[in-house]
């Protein structure tokens, strides 16, 4: 059996209760630029990169000037109106501490950009527990493409079978799978179990995973077939 050496961590919706806030920030930004979209349409796309979400809603090329303006404005809105209200999920801090206690390296693998990631971790008080970080800045393609997961493996000097991805969306699970990494999913991001069916285990949230840690794949990883 391969030894587990690291955990690849999604942040939004996994460690921090921020998925709704991201959706609202996108809707606010789209409205300012004359693109009508509602929360219920945007919310299921949270977890994929903005380079995929924005064209789906607006039809714009994500590299166009207008798209870049919308993305920049969304970040301003998020930072000013929503970020100060966010907090880590109960048990998130303790869960990361438990991973470290088990000797596991913690590498963030997120579709957020580097600046936003640092602000999120700081806001949630999780910054000091993370060993390494990869963000959209480190990947050509965002989730569900595997680039960010592959960048996180490289950053942590891990083989795919030496890590488990912890995420909350089907995009996390798919990105991990495409990189050859097993995924554990949390329901706290708002996705139903059927959407997370590619994960090897599903828990309610960080607190639930922590309470059942000894029986989780992080202690007794499944055999590689």
Task: Give your account of this protein's structure.
By secondary structure, this protein is an alpha/beta fold. The chain has two domains: 143 residues, HAD superfamily/HAD-like (Rossmann fold, 3-Layer(aba) Sandwich); 66 residues, Orthogonal Bundle (DNA polymerase, domain 1). Helix content is 40%, strand content 11%. The chain has nine helices and six strands, in the order E-H-H-H-H-H-E-H-E-H-E-H-E-E-H. Helix 6 links the parallel strand 2 and strand 3.
Mean pLDDT: 95
CATH architecture term of the largest domain: 3-Layer(aba) Sandwich
Structural class: alpha/beta
Stated plainly, the CATH topology of the largest domain is called Rossmann fold
CATH superfamily of the largest domain: HAD superfamily/HAD-like
Q: Extract low-pLDDT stretches.
A: none
- What portion of residues is helical? 40-55%
> Hey, roughly how much beta strand do the residues contain?
5-15%
CATH class type of the largest domain: Alpha Beta
Please describe the topology of this protein.
Layout: E1 6-9, H1 19-32, H2 39-42, H3 50-58, H4 65-82, H5 92-101, E2 105-109, H6 114-124, E3 132-134, H7 147-156, E4 163-167, H8 170-178, E5 182-186, E6 201-203, H9 206-211
Parallel strand pairs: 1-2, 1-4, 2-3, 4-5, 5-6
Helix pairs in contact: 1-4
